[in-house]
Predict the structure.
Amino acid sequence: MANPGKTAQPRVAVAKFASCDGCQLTLLDLEDELLEIVSRFDIVEFPEATSRRSPGPYDIVFVEGAISAPEHIDQIKELRKQARVLVTIGACATAGGIQALRNWADHDAYRAAVYAHPEWIASLATATAVSEHVKVDMELRGCPIDGGQLTELLTAVLVGRRPQIRDEAVCRECKRKGVVCLVVASGEACMGPVTTSGCNALCPSYGRGCFGCFGPRTNANAKSWSTGMLKSGRPPEEVWRLFAGFTGYAEPFRTVITELGKTKG
Amino acid sequence: MIISPAQDQAAAAGQWFLARENLGTLVEAIRGTGRRVIGPTIREGAIVYDDIQTAADLPVGWRDEQSAGHYRLVRGTNDQVFGYTVGPTPWKRFTFPPNLAIATAHRNNTFGFDQPMPDAPPVAFLGVRACELAALAVQDRVFLGGQFTDEDYRARRDAAFIVAVQCTTSSSTCFCTSMGTGPEVHGGYDILLTEIDGGFVLQAGSTGGAAVVAKLPTRRPSHAEAGAAVDNVEAVRTMMGEPLPMAGVGDRLKLQLDHPRWAQVADRCVECGNCTMSCPTCFCTSVVEKSDLDGKSSTTERQWDTCFDVGFAKVAGGDFRARPRDRYRQWLTHKFSTWWDQFGSSGCVGCGRCITWCPVRIDVRDELAAIAPPIAPTVRPVAVEPVAASPGSYSIARLASVQSETRDTTTLTLTDLDPAFLAGRPGQFVMVALPAFPAVPISISRFRANAIDLTIRAVGPTSTALVNLHPGARVGLRGPLGTFWPMQEAYGRHAVVVAGGVGLPPLRGLVDALVSNHDRFESVSLFYGSRTPEDQLYCDDLAAWSASKAIDVAITVDRAGPEWKGRVGVVTTLFDMISWDCSNITAFVVGPERMMQASVQGLVSKGVPADRIHVSMERHMECGIGLCGHCQMAGRFICKDGPVFRLNDLGEMFNREGI
């Protein structure tokens, strides 16, 4: 059981921390591929889908959610020990997610404002990406993750190659799809140039600027992009919100937000 | 039937007129040949190229407004069908698709690879502009012009029937006239349309095109209609203004690989790749493997990619173009320079899409001007029309101040001037007269905000009278006259000014201009020689220039007293200080005849090309406008063909004795 060996199916676990479960649902939503997936992977631990539990070690652990509460830290360290390959999935696990907005706020004041008995709530002052606590082998970005990228990752594991997940601007997907640039043609606010692709330009395809949920791509020139937005007349508060939205605690968005926070005073 | 000469002419040119309300018949006729028609239509707030079922799908009465990082659809003032310029996505989308399966592989007991056959059903492109035809020709050379070819591209290209439309408007981002690709269409089409009031002048460019035209309810255009078609396109050329100085831009860029501007533009660039994806000639791709979960089959998909991609030049050991500036430089130099080396043409056709669709508003035209400024601009500044040009007619100026320079030389500052004098250029001169004194030619030695300086050596009656005037006195002027220093020719080079004695006044305005534009030159230097320290002109200016970083000043005197601490020797001895590449020098020389002779010889022997040495010649002048005959030098009038000449235009006549 401990070592599945080469011929056995990979043992897969899915775990979560502070998150909405949407990324786990993306796996369950792979309706056309699901039977093929469960016939090739042994999904032994998946609380979202089954109450059947199975201890580690695992070949692959998919981790959803941000590290947000004191007990998460020990739990993720233990999961890491049990995982041959640890894959973080979604904006929360890879960047801290929406809940990382509290990293720029007064944690205790928030807690007091939201809960009747704040003293009953054990939470960390920050919500952070899994990679800030343990080594992560692969990431799937997005809020939620893209089913196609998840399938590609699973396929790549089976084939034995590196997943073909591009690290490029969302703009590239707009251009390949023939989506007219919202920034240039409509003056929309859009995070596309600094955000990594993978969603197939979902929001711009529906006339909405990119929310940046896939997070910063490698070499994202967040400074130029935020400066450009300010120069084109967007108020600092709006630019702050755009960068902070889903993946704001990931660099270099984090620096932009912190700098804008200083100018806001 | 009576055929008018105009109709005869139109017939000879194969021209027809199709009324606007009949444009639908063109779409129908093409669709009738079994082709899908792709043309301009409104979608997502832009005029894009997409399926056209009927003429109602066309953007009648709409135009586009384009500038750097800005595109808006706006209502036109008429019902033009093709009143826009170019759409966001180029035609390459249909000849070179953004995603294409180029191979499949299967693995059962054995394994193998298959290449799909090109699938290119017949299609028609309606509304292809001149720049876009040029872009298709560029990609033809890329994909079909070499030893290895792209057969999918060939199939799609062969399947395309092209209806070109000449532009009758331009956007601020358009620069086809600079790239030599438009606005006129020259070949490469099946049918060519030019929109005029009420319809289109059209002509066929192929037998297929002629067959379609034959089915349309056309007539021969009237003389006026054929003329309007020509005029409407010609008007676009005027609309675009002076072409950019593109001559030699490829070589200029190659000399500027270390220019600091690369890093500056890369700081702004967000590397979204929109410029390359919107570019009608960019052809870079990457492949991705798409495998089935069962592991039995996989597809290799080719996708549009861009040299701005982080991993585009990556290998196992690192990235060859690791910095954003490397990637920006790769793109710009490829488009405008190395493309020539690879494919024998520019990679840019001047459609302006990279400017419009750049979300941070980078304009390649500005980057080129900053990084590789023109060495020889195609457009030369034109001299201002002189005032009081005929001898005897003078414009009156007022003497504002008098400044003694040396024992016999004085600078007069004149004000209350006709604006023409202020619009003169360094190197030009004025004819100066006082009542009862013959007019004398004096070069303008400085242009001030509302005044000009004339530096005068008191050698004759008029010059003596002039230097003895007091502020407030009136002076008669004609001019500005003659040729001027072609400062632009020194852009990107070492600008060297060589002055001997009283040769400095005609050069001072040039030195002022070089100093204030110093960042356009590799370097700016002044070599100045005078007989003695007491003969030096403009001592304050020399001191100020010496202190400035904008210009290097070297001074020498022929003879000096014991108090002189500087160099002694003729001005050519200063040339030993030239440490830079002399082939990249543009020189401006004025002085006494022997000094000019020696200076020119010195410069040429150091390797300065003769066509980059400019001299100002002196001769007796009376009229200043080529009518009196005094100043002739062989076939030239120094007053109107000069005084500034390019050395090799003078040839053997330069300083030849007795001419």
The beta strands of chain A are 11-16, 42-45, 58-64, 83-89, 138-140.
